[in-house]
């Protein structure tokens, strides 16, 4: 064998074996980018793009790599990795989307004298005004990444935008934790309606703004004008409706709600909690909020987080290595807002410091955003919380028992070690009673599948996550 070309020949032989043992997509993604550097004695040195790339190979394909090298080189085969030097990344030419803000048609609103509420012989005047929809043109359906976490909400929103006020989804009540995309989805519906029905009057307002406007109208003796204004709205979007406090404010909103709903106008609300969990709300108003559809925006899964980052890079017109995006999507789990903030901060750091968009830079940026405390958890704590939740002993959790409740608890513990701590498969297997990495991988996949199909099971995992990380990752 030609010694100068030995490393290439050896690696090509390895690739033939590996190609027969992994899916074509995985082969293209994780093995084609590898470059053989040298093969001295029984040691093969390979160059890989990043540290994360190497860690992924160790986690997912370590056994396959070891078996392959021993078959090609011999039983004493060794493997070393070099990390490829970082090179400047070319930027994409696709610019951000800058659409014009929508406008409403001019409407006539009844106005009354300031002396007080009109009597039977007081006739209103007419005032022509143009109501600003207050919709952000960037919050379109095109810029909203769909995943299991928000699919139902997006589907309902598309149906509403095709026939506002004339679907079973009236009102539409969107709820979920912070940064899940509630405002984006609500405004996307408004923008889509304005695109299809430009003659309709759309208004976006927050619950706090509605309350402030109401109080101001009371002080200026303009309550009738205030109500007359809102009764001209044909698509009313109230964001953070849980901030609408006070019996008098809610009574005014109750009247607006009744008038608009009875006249076939579309109502859309967002909140950080479900209708049943709203505090200090009048029962009659709560019951009306439940008339239509209440849809929860759940925590985005990994693939949705990654797709969102790719979409934002496309809109910003920048190119970021996928490994960096994978790293961000792995570290920040609960909030689209935190993910976007981390990405924009990363791009800003790289631009201002004239440096490359690397995983090391991403790590320093993410640490400042999410803090270090969230990553001080360890596998022992995960195991203890799982045992406490399922009322089993640590010995049972780490045993080889095949009892259904024990297996379920063990698989959830492995999944949480992987998703929250980002521990390697080998480390998790060792700490979970000496399981091999294939068993851990199977457990993680099983839990992920059950979470997407079994609501009760998903609640188990969510409850334990909250025990481990009260602030949410």
Strand content: 5-15%
In terms of per-residue confidence, which ranges show pLDDT below 50 for 5 or more consecutive residues? Answer: 86-98, 118-123
CATH topology of the largest domain: Rossmann fold
CATH class wording of the largest domain: Alpha Beta
Please give the share of residues in helix.
40-55%
Q: Provide the residue-averaged pLDDT.
A: 83
Count of discrete alpha- or pi-helical segments spanning 4 or more residues: 19
Strand-helix topology:
Layout: H1 6-19, H2 24-30, E1 35-40, E2 43-48, H3 51-72, E3 78-83, E4 106-111, E5 125-130, H4 151-162, E6 172-175, H5 182-196, E7 202-206, H6 207-219, H7 223-230, E8 235-239, H8 247-262, E9 266-271, H9 283-289, E10 293-296, H10 302-316, H11 322-331, H12 336-352, H13 359-370, H14 379-390, H15 394-398, H16 404-419, H17 425-431, H18 437-453, H19 455-468
Parallel strand pairs: 2-3, 6-9, 6-10, 7-8, 8-9
Antiparallel strand pairs: 1-2, 4-5
Helix pairs in contact: 1-3, 4-5, 6-7, 6-8, 10-11, 10-12, 11-13, 12-13, 14-16, 14-19, 16-18, 17-18, 18-19
Structural summary, described in words:
The structure is a single chain. This protein has four domains: 3-83, GMP Synthetase, Chain A, domain 3 (2-Layer Sandwich), CATH 3.30.300.180; 106-296, Rossmann fold (3-Layer(aba) Sandwich), CATH 3.40.50; 308-371, Helicase, Ruva Protein, domain 3 (Orthogonal Bundle), CATH 1.10.8; 375-468, DnaA protein, C-terminal DNA-binding domain (Chromosomal Replication Initiator Protein Dnaa, Chain: A, Orthogonal Bundle). Helix content is 51%, strand content 11%. The protein contains 19 helices and ten strands. With 473 residues, the protein is an alpha/beta fold. The longest helix is centred in the first third of the chain and has 22 residues, at 51-72.
